[in-house]
Amino acid sequence: MYFCVNKYLMTRSEENYIKTIFHLGRKGTQEVATNAIAELMETKPSSVTDMIKRLSEKDLVNYKRYQGVSLTALGNKTALGIIRKHRLWEVFLVEKLDFSWDEVHEVAEQLEHIKSDKLIDSLDRLLAYPKFDPHGDPIPDKNGGFKERDRELLSEVPINTGGVCVGVKDSSATFLKFLDKNGIALGNQIKVMEIEEFDGSLNIEIDGRKMQISHVIASNLYIKANDGI
Amino acid sequence: MYFCVNKYLMTRSEENYIKTIFHLGRKGTQEVATNAIAELMETKPSSVTDMIKRLSEKDLVNYKRYQGVSLTALGNKTALGIIRKHRLWEVFLVEKLDFSWDEVHEVAEQLEHIKSDKLIDSLDRLLAYPKFDPHGDPIPDKNGGFKERDRELLSEVPINTGGVCVGVKDSSATFLKFLDKNGIALGNQIKVMEIEEFDGSLNIEIDGRKMQISHVIASNLYIKANDGI
DNA sequence: ATTATAATTTAGGCAAATCTAAAAATTTGT
DNA sequence: ACAAATTTTTAGATTTGCCTAAATTATAAT
């Protein structure tokens, strides 16, 4: 068993690398490329190599030169701890401090590095143990466990499918503000009425109101299909 | 007027130095000594000198070699901003997350460096604009204004004086736990019954209950004298 | 299969924030 | 007032985390 010896010894930067490697590792199942990390973190590949070596020393990642990198069990647990904190803080900001969902990310990026088990567990309790963050992403529990919700991209479902909007794939402020402007929010009932062959845009009915959205938009919205359809 | 150009460009370490210089500057009205800063921050005088030069470059402190250091108007405003954040977070931890008053300091030391005006102003609102933190220290408002509450050390008041316990001078966990163990808390009515000549210890009546406390304890408790006594 | 291209790593350097050891300035004691 | 003690600063080194430029390895193309 791991005793998280280094849990409180990690620097901010190390934590950010672990988080990034976790996110990139989700997509493909294979090793994460140095360049991919560098691009996402807006840093240089050489800096990434430096850091990977340090993380490797600490047994947070598996690393062989030129072969990419992957999280160890300890690294994975660490990542889930950071993501838990990030998402709980996001819920706090929206629920308790009236932030909008496009404002939370930046502040949560700072708050996720605060080190105190008691703090985060108390926050969890204050928020009544939420299962999802404001963008519909699942919040790991204190042991790092979480289940991906059963959901599909709106762009992937057939005509006449309806469901509840439960999440966004792109959670950039730009996209979220666009959704606000167009009255699209989590919890809305969405039904696909028609798909335009020409450009893939969709005619949808959202909470009774008809509108047209581009394929790009649809491919960034998750819905949970209604039962029995 | 200052436009706080550097407000969001300050490092954690710089902020900690500014805070320390502020606290040391309160006591005596004169310049703060390098050694005093080093001792309080548990660092070496040479490190302090280095940092002071950097702070001086940024116009946060007045500095002349060998002459000690003092905050500029900008430095003072910066310090008050950090203290505001620290104390608001302490209130949050106690009021919303059920921390005890001896547990808040460590976590608040981390939270005080989070950079977001919206965050701290919303927090202020959530907490209903508290005027004092859990140790009875005043919380600066968003412009840095605050008034020291009218209060006296219990050790300084004459026999038969009574008042409400409104603060502690030493807010170390050790002292606070001692107070908890002995049932002394902010809000208690305290009256000085007798002062022992030999060692300066005090017989007091606290919320109706009689007890004896040492001079050291009394010199770390603030009371607000009852009106009309 | 060999070359061209792309990805990754190494080498060497820089800034922040710290340290130790030594030098310089100030303060104190008599 | 002058030597001794104390305080403060300088000089030079270290660690983290980043950079650029050059070298190395892997991958893709013909």
TrEMBL record, chains A, B:
The keyword Cytoplasm applies. Keywords: Activator, Cytoplasm, DNA-binding, Manganese, Repressor, Transcription, Transcription regulation. GO terms for cellular component: cytoplasm. The keyword Manganese applies. It is found in: Cytoplasm. PROSITE patterns: HTH_DTXR (PS50944). One of its GO terms (molecular function) is transition metal ion binding. Its main location: cytoplasm. Residues 10-72 form the HTH dtxR-type domain. Belongs to the DtxR/MntR family. This is Transcriptional regulator MntR. It comes from Arenibacter troitsensis.
